[in-house]
Structure formats: C-alpha cells, structure tokens
Description:
globular; 7 helices; binds S-adenosyl-L-homocysteine; alpha/beta; seven-stranded mixed beta sheet; 33% helix; 9 strands; Rossmann fold
Amino acid sequence: MSARQLRHLGIGMTSQRTRERLVRRLHESGVGNPQVLEVLRWLPRHLFVDEALASRAYEDTALPIGQGQTISQPWVVARMTAALLEGRCLRRVLEVGTGSGYQCAVLARLAQQVYSVERIRRLLERAQTRLRELEIPNVRLRHGDGSAGWPERAPFDAIMLTAAAKSIPGPLCDQLAVGARLIAPVGTAGSQDLVRIVRTTAGFAETRVGRVSFVPLRAGVE
Ligand code: SAH
C-alpha cells in the first residue's frame, strides 16, 4: 500500500458510511441504475480532491480541483454515466476532460477500456497518479485538446464530454461507432443542456436529457 493510501486509510474507513448516505440520496433523487450506484458506493471520491476538501467529498456538490477546474457533482456523474450505459455493455469509451480522474474511474468499472484526454498537464499527471495508486488498470490518459478526440483509438462505443461545448466538435461524432452514443453539456457558461447523440446507420439522432452546469471546453493545451 502506498503512503498516500495509508494516509487516507482512516478517512477511507469512516467515509464508507458517508458514501452509503450519498448513494441513498442519489437513489432518492432519481438515479435508478444499480450498476452506477454500486460503483459510486465503492469508489473513494475523497481521494480525488485535495486533503483539505476531503471531508466534503461525499456532499452532492462539485468541488475545486485546482487550475480553475472542478470535480463534477456526484448526481451529475451518476446521471451522465447512466445515460451512457442504459443496459449496454461498453467496450471502448472516450472521456474528454479527465480533471481529477473520478469520472474516468467510474467509467473504468463499467467498461472494458477507457481513454481520457485532458488539456491541463498538471491535472493529468495528478489523475494518472491517483488511478495508478487505486490500481485501476484499464485506463489510458493523454495530454491534448480533446476536441480532436483520439482518432488512433476510434471508433468508440461511447463518448462523454465533461466540459461544456458551444457545439459538439465534429471529430468526436466521427469517432462514434454505429449504435454508439455521446453525452455532452452543450451551451454557454453557467448552465447548459445535457445532450445525447446516437449514431445510427442513417446519421445522428440528438435528444436533450436535462440541464447541467460545467466548466467550458477550451482549445489548446496548458
Ligand atoms: N471529469 C472530470 C471533470 C473535470 S472538469 C472529473 O471527474 O473530475 C472538466 C475538465 O475538462 C477540466 O479538467 C478541463 O481542463 C478539461 N478540458 C476543458 N477543455 C478541454 C479540452 N478541449 N480537451 C481536454 N480537456 C479539456
């Protein structure tokens, strides 16, 4: 066990109960997918935020992760993951916006292989360390502008954007397999539509599945 894991063992044990409480609340507020709830019950969210914020990790709220970015609210993670799954078996999944690595770790429990792209190197490195320490093996991270997707690994069964796009970047739609779906917050700062796109043999079908609030998708890398 690593030093960091040891340091977190105390809070890890007491947090099991707070995690249970969070999952119960999510269930009450309409998250019905038992697979998703099971993953959130298991995954220690407090390891994905700074130690100073660890005691708030099981509140249903977004929290700062540095560099002006946030780890998404658990309810949003649960909803978006459930909207991507809907009873399907996921093989290859692409996430745009690794951030803390939390959503990525959730997806890794539910898919065979997860690819995730982050534009801020500092965040990417921290996420990489966390995922390694948690021994989550089926994740590949990349430093880059996720608007271009990850063409070498395409096509994907599912793509999730965790930063708000003004419109969905074309290359991401191109990298969906037929029958695959993409979920993304679309709109300007503050509040966005959560949009789901399904690729059919005829083209793309788009539906709006709710309202969310995400940090913006930005071009280039830092
Ligand atoms: N999924 C993350 C949420 C992070 S917030 C989590 O679970 O913690 C959104 C992230 O998207 C930020 O880290 C931000 O740097 C990143 N981002 C914004 N625009 C991006 C782009 N074009 N390519 C890759 N990452 C991007």
